[in-house]
Amino acid sequence: MRTVRITAKTIEAAVEEGLKQLGISREEAVVHVVEQPSSGLFGLIHKKMAVVDISAPDEEIPEEPAEEPAEEPKAEEKAEPLQEAKPEEKPEEPAPAPEEKAVEKAKEETKDEFVFKQEEQDKTAEEAKKFLASVFKGMHLDVTMECMMNEERILLNLHGEGLGILIGKHGQTLDALQYLTNLAAGKAFHHHYFVLLDVENYRERRKDTLEALARRLAGKVKRTGEAVKLEPMAAGERRIIHLALQNDGAVTTESEGEAPHRYVVIKRKD
């Protein structure tokens, strides 16, 4: 079997080049994807090319002969007398292995009520900072991290020049970076110490903007009587809209649609 390994930006481009080199059609080729392409973190760092092995078989593999059907029993042969089936005895359950006992014990421990430990939270914060420092180094960003903590969360407020790239449209990039940071920092403990990321107090400014938008659109709904649909938002931003109008007796809010395109609808109460 002749095989070539091709590296390209996409799997399709690699396969096309391999077929050209081997001089065969797509139907004749055996394709094995060695490595999937990746656009990297935020499309900027750790990009990966597609790596594909394309093989051309030297000869066709002969089909195995079909098995001959079993011969029907001859009519003159006497059938064996049927015997009464005895009830099967249930085998004894094996004792759990030590490993299984350890797994069950770990499961029971995770059910225990969460007990806050300052040293665990401090460790989580340090791991979060290490992860972010490696990301910023790869992106060639000079970032200062301001850390504030309470028992509910660890807040890392990021300061520096040109950090708009970390925010993205409506904070989508910041939310993605926050998710990755929590994955990296939370591996050491089965209890979760939440890490909240912010850039130059962006989240507070965004909250003020959404609350003002909610009040303005609620006023429009009251005047016209027509429901208003907002653009799709992340769950956290939809929650801000709901909370901003929860005490308004003239309107009601609902989330509709399927993730990731869920949106808030503001309606006048009947």
Descriptors:
single chain, 270 residues, alpha+beta, GMP Synthetase, Chain A, domain 3, Ribosomal Protein S8, Chain: A, domain 1, 3 domains, three-stranded antiparallel sheet, three-stranded mixed sheet, 6 helices, 9 strands
Task: Report helical residue fraction.
Answer: 25-40%
Counted beta strands:
9
Indicate the CATH topology of the largest domain.
GMP Synthetase, Chain A, domain 3
Regions with little confidence, pLDDT below 50 for 5+ residues: 73-83, 90-94
**Global shape:** extended
Whole-angstrom Rg: 31 Å
| Most strands sheet | 3 strands, antiparallel
Please, how many domains? 3
Mean pLDDT, to the nearest integer, reads: 81
Instruction: List the strand order in the largest sheet.
Output: 1-3-2
Query: Helix and strand string, N-terminal first?
Result: EHEEHHEEHEHEHEE
